[in-house]
## 1
Amino acid sequence: MRRLIGEGELADLAQGAAVLGTGGGGPPYLGMLLARRAVHECGPVSLVSLDELADDACCADVAMMGAPTVLLEKVPSGEEPLRALEALERAHRRTVTHIVCGEAGGVNSMVPVVAAARRGLPMVDADGIGRAFPELQMMMPTLYGITAAPLAITDERGNTGVLRTVDNRWTERIARAITVELGCNASIASYLMTGAQARQALVPRTLTLCLELGEAIRCARAAHRDPVAAVIERLGGRRLFHGRVTDVDRRTVFGFARGHALMRGVGEWADTELRLEFQNEHLVARRDGELVASVPDLIIVLQEATAEPVTTEELRYGLRVEVVGAACDPRWRSQAGLAVAGPRAFGYDHEFVPVAAGGPHLGGASWRA
Amino acid sequence: MRRLIGEGELADLAQGAAVLGTGGGGPPYLGMLLARRAVHECGPVSLVSLDELADDACCADVAMMGAPTVLLEKVPSGEEPLRALEALERAHRRTVTHIVCGEAGGVNSMVPVVAAARRGLPMVDADGIGRAFPELQMMMPTLYGITAAPLAITDERGNTGVLRTVDNRWTERIARAITVELGCNASIASYLMTGAQARQALVPRTLTLCLELGEAIRCARAAHRDPVAAVIERLGGRRLFHGRVTDVDRRTVFGFARGHALMRGVGEWADTELRLEFQNEHLVARRDGELVASVPDLIIVLQEATAEPVTTEELRYGLRVEVVGAACDPRWRSQAGLAVAGPRAFGYDHEFVPVAAGGPHLGGASWRA
């Protein structure tokens, strides 16, 4: 059975992606508006599992780059991702057959839908990370030696760049510099790969997981059950904190939304404090100084009672939230994975401590396959 | 008769270009080393006048972008310009037949020689400005609606970008952002144009003028005549100041060497002070507060007695210099020209005041044709 993403699925998909987005990937609502229009005008997008993918399929990641904080004020038209895709195809002299969602995160779960709907292409039921990460080289394909370049980058004015680089870190650096110059927001197409490569290097079933997460939250709300518990159950995650935001320090630095938030506990966590560090995504959580979760594991901030995912730019004084930890794809916990996206890759001077180590969800296996 | 640029011509060419470079375009010595090796290994480069150029010739500008201050420490290998040229050809799907010198300035008079020698192509006896300017859109072709893009940009590591932009100002902005990220120095190929376009949009005979200026300085020195006077005579210029540098304030900002120098007069200018503003090039000269020269006219700083051109990064306390003003190509003095490269285009809040207005060199015509 082939699954379709139509207008009816977009809300669940965006909601689930916002959960996995761990605060990053931009505001889901904005991306959903773009995707809704595209699906409304061009019809639903079919979802192809990695197993179904032909070895010689031509897959490409279409995404937005920049600071989510800026995205809220500098709204894209929806044409930019298509122009990026076309520039990528020209650079490779290949025609893309399948659209890949690079990261499960708010706007970046929707932008590929926009591109797929408008080009009439299927999407792969997978993503490049299994969550959201702030930098371009922090993708599973990097661990498999797959290059992001040639990468195409466009803006709303009609400027386009094609980058060929020596490694994915340089792709990130140059694309980021361009993004900042373009106004901290750009559309990119990159990581062109074959179906065989995609099967190996992508994180399987992420879009289905997003749909299921969104559905779980929606149904729990409707049934007056705890939607936060539904998220935790679906992810095999763990409740890390429940409290109220007491301080937020947020800056836009080099195209990133960086900062930290402090939270004061309630209930079980009364008289304790959580400090949350973020760089586009929620990256490190310390409870009374003790490290309770860090990248590459998922730190998910949800509004109390509604389980509405809270992005880093939505954190504000007084907001009552629950913080959930969940295991990342096990490959991110490998030495190679941690070198690319472990705490030290983000400038934090501590080792990775798995959230809920030894639990039933160790290695993230429980929410895959 | 076809003129050749061999090893014997390089010193004069570099010297003359350094004069027209008005302090910018990078240190001529470094560029000369690269050109000397290329010409030594690959043979001399022939010089083709604009009149001789076939209408369907394919001309391209090869240059370095970045802060000259940085270039002194981050020396290019000489391969980068060729890689930029090849990327430009791939982007246009054209084969370049003639190399253009984008600006008459130290390193950027030599980089095109490197590319021409290594590719076995002739150079056009012209340049894109008639002097040096710090930004990519400040080229005569901009006044004729010729686009810098597609532009190819490369670094010494092997990173390459191809930009397609909405106008030459955006080409500058994006290429500059990339250049800064690459370490404030990159090689670019751009402004691909036909022979017919080149004839209209380039400044004719600039390379011959450079050779003649270099020769004039060399011969004056050998004959114990005043080489500064020889420069002034050849350019139809005017002596603006003679003095000693008393203060220099120089910063590298956004990939540019920016700042100002103060000079205390001697002889005729005793008890007067000259303030020189620069942004890669010497841009504005005020004598005791009075504006005596400004862009787009040429402000040339020469070492006293030797007439060795002084770049903005060579200005230092105690240096004894003579400052010469000369008229730019008359098209820069038009309304359209001043909009692109007049004082206000550089952020100075004053009108253009022609140097030596009414003199025999008005409009720069005296040193053309």
Note: Confidence is low (pLDDT under 50) at residues 357-369 of chain B.
## 2
Amino acid sequence: MILNSTSVYVRMGLSSSADAASVDSMTLFVLLLCACIIFGHLLQKSKWMTESVVALIIGLVTGIIILVSTGGKSSRVLVFNEELFFIYLLPPIIFNAGFQVKKKQFFRNFLAIVLYGVIGSLISFLIVSLGSLQLFKKLDIDLMALGDYFALGAVFSATDSVCTLQVLNQDETPHLYSLVFGEGVVNDATSVVLFNAIQKFDLSHITPTNIFQFIGNFLYLFLTSTFLGVAVGLFSAYLIKKLYFGRHSTDREIALMILMAYFSYMLAELLDLSGILTVFFCGIVMSHYTWHNVTENSRITSRHAFATLSLISEIFIFLYVGMDALDIEKWRFASNSPWTLFGTSAIMLSLVLLGRAAFVFPLSFIANLFRKSRNDKIAFKQQVVIWWAGLMRGAVSIALAYNKFTTSGHTQLQGNAIMITSTIIVVLLTNVVGGLLTKPLIRLMLDPHKHVGSSMTYDFVSEKTLPLLSNGEDSESNIDTGNPIDSSKVVHHYWRMFDDTFMRPVFGGRGFVPLIPASTTEDTQH
Amino acid sequence: MILNSTSVYVRMGLSSSADAASVDSMTLFVLLLCACIIFGHLLQKSKWMTESVVALIIGLVTGIIILVSTGGKSSRVLVFNEELFFIYLLPPIIFNAGFQVKKKQFFRNFLAIVLYGVIGSLISFLIVSLGSLQLFKKLDIDLMALGDYFALGAVFSATDSVCTLQVLNQDETPHLYSLVFGEGVVNDATSVVLFNAIQKFDLSHITPTNIFQFIGNFLYLFLTSTFLGVAVGLFSAYLIKKLYFGRHSTDREIALMILMAYFSYMLAELLDLSGILTVFFCGIVMSHYTWHNVTENSRITSRHAFATLSLISEIFIFLYVGMDALDIEKWRFASNSPWTLFGTSAIMLSLVLLGRAAFVFPLSFIANLFRKSRNDKIAFKQQVVIWWAGLMRGAVSIALAYNKFTTSGHTQLQGNAIMITSTIIVVLLTNVVGGLLTKPLIRLMLDPHKHVGSSMTYDFVSEKTLPLLSNGEDSESNIDTGNPIDSSKVVHHYWRMFDDTFMRPVFGGRGFVPLIPASTTEDTQH
């Protein structure tokens, strides 16, 4: 299929017409990334700031400086590029999330995650779409076609899983992290499907056939994307086990892992599946099998190299969003009607708050019905945190909004410009307010004694993934963080049996003892 | 300076007009990269193949398949993009080379390296330029202006340090590796300066002033580039020592190292210096100071992560060159005159062979005059290996040729098309022949007992960098690989004193004992 394409044509890198300027901006960008890491570290001691907020602020400040230094002439400081985001920045973040996720927690909460991520996103989508349709009409700022309101619903139902990773800590609040982050990943897929469905479907007459078609479409997308990720992950495990096992080819092992993970994402995108879901499950499978088939040095390197790539991508995105917020062009169009802009932003923000409340509390109630142990139920205070932590909208929303309301980053229509600027305002507000208040909120709502100081726990946490390296244990062994319910225990038991009997002999994985004489070389190093 | 630029404008990623096609080619490319690593590994057991040759061949085969499958319609399979090469692919390779280079060997051979890299490149440049001028006239294929011949000389005097890394092994032949690779780095800088000087200078009347100007220009470039690299490297060491020392923030440490190294390269390019020299010295300083200030996990991760990035970039380049070789457009122009093409290619190849012989043997003689110990002199057999191993022309030559003879990858002039195709032929020939014959040549010319089997030594070698991690020793401790001459011993002694007294207290480095209570956490892991 790939080779049949008549236009296999790679155009990467900076456009040659803007050579010198590109080197300028690249240098500036790299410098700003360094600054974000340094200031993020320095400000981390205060329990309020997250690195993403630091990056947003640095981006905004830089944007202002550039605007002032160019005398406001440079109408385009930085063009938000969807492809840069979806092809280069998002994959490492989601892959790393899958690679580092606590698998047991994730699968134990699977029902709740799917409830939030699919049904919840749909509820949120409907509330935002229909709410904005009604309110915009009432306020006489009815600027758009019917389809645009539904697109708006999809844009604002995309929770930003990247932000979630920043405010919730997997080791401090594993249960919440797994719920909110898991929801974010499933929700990303839902939003993209919704968004594409809306672009294609005739919305003027919604029929039951349409709805079934949509549900079928979603199930197909969810299952095939997951299957593809699992398949590529398993293939990588098998390949590395056969080719390199015990050969100490650390660089090649890591290179293969990175390339295969990226391949899974690109292949999914090529087949119009959800690359996000695919690469997430590829990460899970790789950490369950492939990671155990490589040398100890590869294990340490892969853990940290993937986390580093993800960190750089995250900071890059927030810096990008911060700088892009100041794009003069769209503000110029929107500034003719400041009250309209204010109105739309306020409406969207309220609808996002409302839309999320409308599904978190009812769906948590439903999820709790399936949980027998009292300890395991999602308490009301936890529900509040889930509601709050998932409010942040980020780069996915911006990317979708640009896709819908601009033509390759530019717009001349006032209605579209207002939608873009409202999106940016909501993203900035939810990120800054959310970023600043989530940590205090968690301390307030949940047990305060567990969270002494975030900077201390941070230092502890970042190396915590590593004790499991030497004795071959897996993240799965953290069973004591909550009492699993019986049914999940049974499922896990059967999975274990299946894994041990059929999967591990083929794909390696934990406990697969390296049978290599060269392993003595490693032992003498320590 | 950066902020004053009126057009700070980032355009990265794939052009939006070619979205689907780009995803196609990206997916294909990632798949091919995987294939190169896998086949490279499988073929490594044969002592003839190097990974670069495998990548070249896979690239060629893929190009043929695409051509056939599109029925020869797709005239542009892949556009060679200078920026992709110089901004994204080259920096990690050169940085990694500096980071992993055996510093003692490099500095001990510094005189010979500068002789080869500067004087040698100039000799080679003059021979290729004047030789092609004479021979092309005799063969009646005089297609170009005077300046083009000199540009050709610069193009073909650019030794490919990437290829050198592939055929020579730092641990098998450290002395030769350091000479040929060191020459490659200095030579890269010389070629780029030469190339730029030729574009600017009036070549019709070369005056002594011009020549002095050129020498001054080169010295300025060499010294400022080196200084910039050292400065950024030292700053990174200081920063990480102050900020993170003992904090177990592995991901942030690695991210900062990567970003600062990249920053040094971009800044050098922005200031019209040699980014290659800068990032090489930045790598050396980072491995001498910064690397010792980070946690043990960061050390393992950085060694392997940088090597992995470099590996992927290298394979990418060769795959790229292999695929680009089949670009129909230029072959169409060149195929009207197959004999001319054959003639030019043969002439260029002979001149490259001759130009290299003309400086390796005389300059080795001069370098030997300064070496007292008989063991330390460059033997004739070694000179032959140096001559042969540096013959390969690679992506730098192609990038310079494209820069000179095309307008953003396209050309309509027959003379230019012939120059591009000749360059590609020379690059392919030197790489395939060089890649296949260098290892046997080394076995033939040098002590055969030392090199039992390359695949065995390879496995041993790839982990060999790591025993020095645990006990804090440095690559510098391999003193027994050759008898250092007295003067270098004295220089090294004073450098050591200076380093211990002034540098290490500020910038950290080897032996700077971590004073952290948290270090016990690390100990328990092993």
Note: Chain A touches chain B through 96 residues (CB under 8 Å).
